[in-house]
Amino acid sequence: MSSEADDFLKAIRERPDDIGLRLIYADWLEERGNPQGEFIRVQCGLAKECESQAQVTAWKARQHTLLAQHEANWTRHWHGMALGHGFRCGFLEEILISAQDFLSAKVADLLQRDPIRVIRLCEVRDLLAAVVASPRLSCISTLDLASNDLGDLDAEILVNSPHLGKLKELDLTANNLGDRGVRALAGARTLTGLTTLILDANPFGDPGAQALARSRYLDGLENLDLGGTQISDFVIKALRARFGDRVQIWQV
Q1: Helices 19-31 and 36-46 sit at what angle, rounded to 10 degrees?
Q2: pLDDT, one tens digit for every residue, the chain (252 residues)
Q3: Based on C-alpha coordinates, what's the Rg of the chain?
Q4: Per residue, what are the HEC states of 191-231?
Q5: How far is residue 3's CA from residue 112's CA, in Å, rounded to a whole number?
Q6: How far is it, in rounded angstroms, from Cα 148 to Cα 75?
Q7: I need a surface site. Which of 35, 60, 173, 246 has the fewest CB within 10 A?
Q8: Contact between 213 and 204 (Cβ < 8 Å)
Q9: Counting Cβ atoms within 10 Å, is residue 51 exposed (0-12), middle (13-18) or buried (19+)?
Q10: Interacting residues of 240 by C-beta distance below 8 A, sequence separation 6+
Q11: Overall pTM surpassing 0.70 (yes/no)
Q12: Half-sphere exposure in the Cβ direction for 146 (13 Å, CA)
């Protein structure tokens, strides 16, 4: 990879929401016959909300073709490490990986290659303290810890991480969080940037939900998923009163 390409990728990692920068890089790639340039342009187009259905359909078909032809090559450096992956606006931005592999020296190097923003971790249980102590979390916007058998003490460990400053979405679906664990989340200064908190299928009840309603640190929430939890209608009303219409509260 050329030093100019390295400079582009470094800038994209530092400014992941700058679509214009990605399109400039797409031009640079297309001038050199690199098909990722077209892929970036197609996915950036799909990220818009004002395009015609015909254009969206055409872009989706082209996206499918480009992935069929080049996905294995674009993700080859993650082979043997990532268990799953996802692209956004032309770049690998999402990985599913075991906690053990996430902590490996090889992943430290790989995270310098792609603008990874979404990390979905499995097999976390005994490695949570090491994971949340890792500065590798400092650039991500979504942390998915669903179905990792995490409990209240783990929630307390999580919220003490100094590397969650850019976190926007936290998924703790189907763990073992009781009221104590949810109180820890509600009282966490480290989670002030959250816009989405997913607590689906955890065994906490009214005391934990009341702590969420009283929290001083969740003012940025836009989505709160409480599906499958043991919360009374009275407390759900208290949560709606606390957050108002700006927060979608999901309960099934």
Answers
A1: 150
A2: 578 988 999 999 999 999 999 999 999 999 999 999 999 999 999 998 777 889 999 999 999 999 999 999 999 999 999 999 999 999 999 999 999 999 999 998 898 889 999 999 999 989 999 999 999 999 899 999 999 999 999 999 999 999 999 999 999 999 999 999 999 999 999 999 999 999 999 999 999 999 999 999 999 999 999 998 889 999 999 999 999 888 999 875
A3: 20
A4: HCCCCEEECCCCCCCHHHHHHHHHCCCCCCCCEEECCCCCC
A5: 14
A6: 26
A7: 246
A8: no
A9: middle
A10: 249
A11: yes
A12: 16
Task: Describe the strand order of the beta sheet including 196-198 as a list of residue ranges.
Answer: 84-88, 91-98, 118-122, 142-144, 169-171, 196-198, 223-225, 248-250
Can you read off the two tokens belonging to residue 81? 């490490």
Domains, the chain, with CATH or none: 124-252 (3.80.10.10)
